[in-house]
Amino acid sequence: MAWYPRDCQVIKKGHCTVCTGKCPVSSHVKAKWKYVNKMKKVKKTIQEMKDSYERNRKEYEKSVNLLESLKQESRNLEEQKTKLLDQSYNHIVQLEQVALNGYSLSTLVHLDVLSKKMMEKGEREKAHKLNEMKDQAHKGSRAGLRYIKAAPSGWEQK
């Protein structure tokens, strides 16, 4: 028996090799027993080993199938996201062409979000067009604000 746990035979590099190999020497205390490594022989039949192998193989195949289905679902969702992003872009462009004044504050926020998503997707031309639309909307809203400020004080808005 060692005087201190750190000096014990089963402690290697500051960790106990008997417990888990990971617990630090500080979690051990000197006690009236000692740890002894023992080897135990176990007999297994070929059928037991084969059954164990089959069980593990089935679990592995199940996890591989689950992983493949999750990857496929992820690909499908990415494709759907791309389609919806393109559809949103087309609707914004179409709205700009037909609307007299289609820019509200919420539209500007949506243009900003859609522009960022297009940049993430790698479609710089569409993102540039959306940024141009946003700049035009800002110019239009600034001009309207200037017009209202410059109006004679006697004007009433109807």
TrEMBL record:
Keywords: Coiled coil. This is Uncharacterized protein. It comes from Channa argus (Northern snakehead). It comes from the Eukaryota. Residues 36-87 form a coiled coil.
